C-alpha cells in the first residue's frame, strides 16, 4: 500500500495509545484519505521553543505516523504571524488595507519552508504521494524539488485566491506565483479562484494554457482545478440528532423559552464579518420593533491569532459594537445579542445549529465556509431552519437555495433575516432539501477522493533532475 504524506502548518498529534486520527477540521477531512493509504502527517507541532531541533519528532499512531517540528519565537513571529497572517491572509481575502508586508517576515516564511523541506525530504520514500495544505506552505514544493524530490506533490489552498489586481500588490507576488506553479496539482475551492490564479499566471509569467486546467509555466506543467471541500454530512447530522441530550444545548433551548434563535459561529477573524453582522441584526430590530424580545442572536466567536494586531483591534471593535447594541436595545428581560468567545465541541455546535431558526453566515470573503454546510447538515428534515449566506463565501456556489446576501449591505442582511424568520415551512423544506442532498453527494470523502484520484495521475510523469 502506498503512502500519503500530508503536510499542514498545524499538526495535532493524538494522545499516545490512541490510534485515532486527531480531531479538528483538516483531520476529520482527511480521515477517509488515511483509510485508503498508510499515512505520514508532517508540520508544526504548535509549540514555540528556543533553538528547536532540525529533526522532526516522530510519533506512531496506528496507520498514521506524525512528524512534527517546533518553531523558534522568531520563526513563529515572521513565518506564521508575520508573512502568513499579516500579508498573505489579508491579501487573499481582498483586504489590502489590512495587509502589512515586511521583508524580514518574508525571509522568515521562506526560511521555515526551507527548514520544513529539509526535514521532510529525509522521510519521503519513492512511492509516496505528497499533499500540502494551506497558504503557509506555498514555497514547499520548490524547496522539495530543489532537494531532488520527484514524487507527485499537490497543494490545496483552503482560502480564496484573489484576482491579479489584488494579489499582485504583494511585493513577493511573482515569486509566489512561480512557487505555486511548482506543484503538480493546485486545488482551489471555486471556479472563480481557478480563473483568478490561471489568469494571473498567464498575465504575469506568460504561462501557456494546455486545456483541461493544465498550464505550462516556465517549462513546467501544472494543473489547476476546483475541488470544493465538503463536510462529514452523516456524522454531523447524527451529532445534531443526539445533541438534545447535551447539557449546554438543553439549557440554551430552555433559556430561549418561546424566543427564536439566530446563530453565527466563527473564528474571531475580520474576514468573517462579525461586527458587520451585529450591525445587520441591529438594523433588523430597528425596522422590526415587534420582534424585540422575540428573537435572540447568539454569536459564538473563539478568539484567534491574538498576537496579530489586526485581530486585537477586531476584538475591541466587536466589544464596542456589541456593547452599543445591547446597551441601546436591550431590556432587563432581554439581551438582543449573546456573545461567547469560548470554543465548543462539535456535538454542542450541532445541537445549537439545530435549535436555531436561522443560521447567519455572512463572511466578507471566505474560501468555502464549513459553518454554512454544518448548519444545513444539522437541520431536521421536517422542520429545517433557513441559511442566510454571504455571496462572497465559496459555499454559496454549492448552496444557491440559501438566502444569498451582500454582507457589506446591512439593510439587505436585515431583510434576509426577516424573510428567514417569516418563511413558511413548505418553503424552508423546499430550499433545504436540495442543499442537503448536494452536500451529501459532495461530502468530505468525495473531496479527498477526487483530489487524490487526480494527484495519482502524476505518478508516471518523468521529472528533470534539479539544476545543480
Ligand atoms: O482556513 C485556513 C486555516 O489556515 C485553516 O487551515 C485553519 O484551521 C484555520 O485557518 C485557523 O487558522 P490558525 O491555524 O491560524 O489558527
Automatic annotation (TrEMBL):
GO molecular function, one term: alpha,alpha-trehalose-phosphate synthase (UDP-forming) activity
SUPFAM superfamilies: UDP-Glycosyltransferase/glycogen phosphorylase
InterPro entries: Glyco_trans_20
Pfam family, one: Glyco_transf_20
Gene Ontology annotations of biological process type: trehalose biosynthetic process
The family this protein is said to belong to: Belongs to the glycosyltransferase 20 family.
PANTHER family (alphabetical): BCDNA.GH08860, TREHALOSE-6-PHOSPHATE SYNTHASE
Descriptive protein name: Trehalose-6-phosphate synthase
Organism the protein comes from: Methylobacterium nonmethylotrophicum
